[in-house]
Structures
1.
Amino acid sequence: MAAGLIGAAQAAFTQALQLAAMISAAVAVGAGILAIALLRRVPMGSELEDKRGPESARALTGGRRC
């Protein structure tokens, strides 16, 4: 009787752990896709300098050179 209960508990624990891992992986993939989608239109540093010029880029860094 005790061995059956321990086996059932181990199986339930393993199943719950696998489910939690799958949910965590899905959330991580979703967060990555969301980050890519949101950051797609953000200009990179060199593109920002090309549009505004080197003085504006320096002003954004607090006067320090990039």
Note: Residues 42 and 48 are 9 Å apart (CA to CA).
2.
Amino acid sequence: MKRLIVGVVAAVILTTGQAAAEGLAPPSRIKAPGTVIGPNWNGFYVGVGIGAGVASHDVSGKKEKKYCKQWWCGHCLQWEHYTESFSDSDTSDIGVFGTVTVGLDRVLRPGWVGGVFADYDFGSNISGDVSLPHYSLSLDHNSSWAVGARLGYLVTPSTLLYGTAGYTQAQFDIGNLGSTTFDGYFVGAGVETFLRQNWTLKLEYRFSQFGEVLTGEQFTSGLRISVTYVLLKLVSAFVPLRVSMQQELEGLDISQHGEALQ
């Protein structure tokens, strides 16, 4: 009797197992959980944009002067020479300019992005005045370029907060003294976000400090000028050489050329 009961139970279990198995989709039709796809921060990019900024200057120098110490019959018999020191500090009006940039970014570790870049600012109308004894000179920004690096953190898969630093050079026209080149460094911070798969928009603040330049032969010890440059840039970047994470998972042969490895 016990053997009969055990046999019936085993048959029921086997039948139930087979029925359950028959109710399942075949393994080939069972889909794995989908991969979470986000913007790809790896690769080259090019960008164009506009910016606004001001230039602050500090000027110092000495100018030789003379006065007549002894007169006789309307003529100076003895001239006394001396030097007069002067200085000036001022900030220009806000000006605008165009900018172009190229760069390369890489995901260094989950959540962190690093990269290098170069940019060029052109068409600037940033201008100010340098006050000198008895007259003034205009200080006009023409163009500037910079090379640097940035490091940022992804606050969301599509938004990057970053800091940046590097080397910069700017060209200024200083009145009748001609064009002068200033070298210096810059530091800044910004935010960049993906608008769509291959387009980003970034807003960046940059502070540039340029070294002192000695110019002006008419001054006894030269005219020493140092410039501080503050910028705010809005840049739209196109990333034609990046591929999406899904394309990387599929492989470039399939996603870009419709070919599969045979």
Note: Residues 43-248 form a domain with the Porin fold (CATH 2.40.160.20).
